[in-house]
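Notes from the 1:1 (GR / supervisor)

We went over the backlog. Supervisor wanted to see one worked example end to end before approving the batch request, so GR pasted a single chain during the call. The sequence is below; no edits were made to it. Supervisor asked that the structure be written out right there so they could see what the output format looks like.
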Amino acid sequence: MKLISVLSLSMFLLGGCGIFISSNHLIGYFFGVEVMFLSVLLNLVVVSVLMNELTGHYMAIIVLTMSAVDIVVGLTLVVLYFRYRGNLSLDLFCLLKG
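Structure output shown during the call:
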C-alpha cells in the first residue's frame, strides 16, 4: 500500500509540474489537472482498502463519472474556442468575458 501511496504522490506532483510547464497551452493544462484529480482518487481508494470500507470505492466511481462529464463539457468549449480563434493560447482567454 505504501508503494501505491508513493505512486499517487508522484502522479500529483507530475500533474502539478504539467500545469506549470504548459501554462499557455490549454490541453496540457487540462491533462495536468486530470492527472492530479486521478491521483487524489487513487489515494481515496487506497485509504478505503486500508479501512476495509466500500464507501470510498463508491465515492470514487461517482466522482470519476462527474469528472468525465466535466472534461467532456470543457473539451467542447475548447473545440468551440479553437474554431472561433484558431489557436488554444491561454493569453486570449480574458477576451471571453461576457
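Supervisor's comment: The two ends are 48 Å apart (CA to CA).
Batch request approved.
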